[in-house]
Specification:
The protein is of the alpha/beta class and 307 residues long. 41% of the residues lie in helices and 18% in strands.
Amino acid sequence: MKKILITGGAGFIGSHIIELLQKENCDITVLDNLHTGLRENVPENVRLIEMDIRDKRVIDVFEKYQFDVVLHLAGQTMVNVSVDDPFYDADVNIMGTVNILEACRKTGVKRIVFSSTAATYGDIEEVPIREEFSVNPLSFYGLSKLTVEKYLKLYHDLYGLEYVILRYANVYGERQGDGGEGGVISIFTKKIAKDESFVIHGDGKQTRDFVYAGDVARANWYAANTEYCNTIYNVSTNSETSIRELVDLLESASGKTIDRQYGERREGDIYRSVLDNSKIVTNLNWRPMINLQEGLRRTYDYFVKSK
């Protein structure tokens, strides 16, 4: 039985990972400060430790449970927060991760799977974006994630800690909060379910690659087990959807006509983003199973029931 720690496991992506790992009969521990994660996202039969990744007592948790693999999802995920408060973003995403890495090193963890982001690439004209493309983040959030990627490589080179970096496209699905990069779907879907209006930032022609959280969960599990480690993988659908097209699909999923209002573009936002997923398809035999129309239907149905 594989012993797995999920940092940030009470978040919405973590909740999807827990569902999958329970089916795989893993010994699961969740470490989450519940700042944005929810206790109800962690089943009662799963061990939950309420603790911040920056807490020096993290090492005690590692020593007690002797994890085989760490799935590191915990972090500051808001682009606007990183621009407003770079110190906080770096403290959580960089120093918090170093605290986790030190615990891995000192307790013999074999592998860490890191949840990174398409924000590391910045605004690249050539799409779809491949892993070997140059990186030029436009926000401190993207920069802090990229910095952690460099730490992971050095921890492998210096200490032998295996790693897999997963650069997510825009993740969405049931139980999603309003924060993070995929939060536009959560925000829009909740408001549609409540018959409320919402504002589209910019002209609505900006594009994203929306990937369903259940598919992201499988990518984490495959990354935890693959022999093709110590590298970076894009986790995406390899398809580009504009915000205007997204609203069209939400109209179809909800059966409602949506009043579209437009506001100013947000600072630090990438205009066009779609990730090439051929590497993870080839090496990990992973591919997205849920298309956007079906994923939006599931997400909308969830928020209608929970409104």
